[in-house]
Amino acid sequence: MTSIRLASLAAIVAIGLTAGGCAGYRESRGYILDEQLASAVQVGTDNKTSVEKTLGRPTFTGQFNDNEWYYVSRNTSTFAFRNPRVTQQTVLRIRFDAAGNVAAVERTGKEQIASIDPYGKTTPTLGRRKSFFEEFFGNIGTVGGVGTAGQGGRGQ
């Protein structure tokens, strides 16, 4: 009778430990956006120095234009072993004019996230498709043979 209780107790503990590994968690990534500080940046009044003092260094700057600063904030939620799901995203884009003054402040959310679905496990290419055997045996006799222009051949 005692061994049955011990076995059932061990099973309950094992199930509890296994279920504990399936817990979900939330994660914040990128810039932690403070709404009051973000709304303090004004067009025409602020410049690069004042924006950096107010918001800090940007997450990244524009790739083709150094006068665009981006502050990216993203919250994700994950359950067990699934891929993270974006619950909230804010991208604050601040554009500066040539003199370094704020020209525009734009804010976007998670509607800008693009879902990319890869096409299978291979990349489609143009050209002739060869079977496994054509690929494997196709070059036999062509490289280095007499009368061909391969290494060791005379190319006659």
Automatic annotation (TrEMBL):
Q: Does the keyword Signal apply?
A: yes
Source domain of life is Bacteria
The residues covered by the Outer membrane protein assembly factor BamE domain are: 30-104
Query: Which InterPro entries is this protein grouped with?
Result: BamE (IPR026592), BamE-like (IPR037873), BamE_dom (IPR007450)
What keyword terms does UniProt attach to this protein?
A: Cell outer membrane, Membrane, Signal
What the entry lists under Pfam families is as follows: BamE (PF04355)
Protein's name according to its UniProt entry: Outer membrane protein assembly factor BamE
What organism is this sequence from? Answer: Sphingomonas astaxanthinifaciens DSM 22298
